[in-house]
Amino acid sequence: MHNRCQAIQALNLLAPIVSALFQSSPALADSPNLYVTGAAGFNNPTTRTNTGVQGTFEEYTNPGASAELGLGIDFDGLRVEATYAIDASQLRGYTNVSGIDFDYKSGGEVRKQSGFLTGYWDLLRKSTWTPYLGAGFGYSNLDVRDFSDPGLSYKGFNRSLWGYQLKAGVSIDMSTHSILFAEGIYRGTSGFRTNDGFDNWNNASWSSWGGQVGVRISL
To answer: Which CATH number fits the domain 31-218, given the four candidates 1.10.287.990, 3.40.50.720, 2.40.160.20, 3.30.30.10?
Structure first.
């Protein structure tokens, strides 16, 4: 009971301090702006170096399409978004442990679906155009379909991984309720293990560079 009374007294003391902070800071005094965001673009997966008992090989992937959709809150220069993102691509080929190049002849479709919580910092808030930086983390599901080269067929895989993204872009005010933006993106995942039907491999992060154009609309 005594601890409960002390907690109530502490809250009563903190209340006017918090109220004063909100009134003195324009960024906190204004109500945050809720918005929806959507974007589309491309992703270009990086070369992956994979290791196993047989040695090390490098694997290559063709570029593909990307999209992102979600909700955000704008705290007058600091933004937070919760988004769903998808990166599609297709395996292209590999350099085997002996240094010989092979192209995949079929299959290898890749879908990486992610849920991100991303924070953004708008650098110049007084202009109609605003550069920004962003960083986020979350969950990624990586799905790779079966694939084959001219001599062998390999098993695909599905993995649940940690995901992250880094962004740099520019926003342009189109109206009081809509903002157009263009951004560059780097996305990656935690490392993972696979078995292609022949050997076990330790796979590096599934990472990619890309770009998107999108819009944010205030609710």
So the answer is: 2.40.160.20
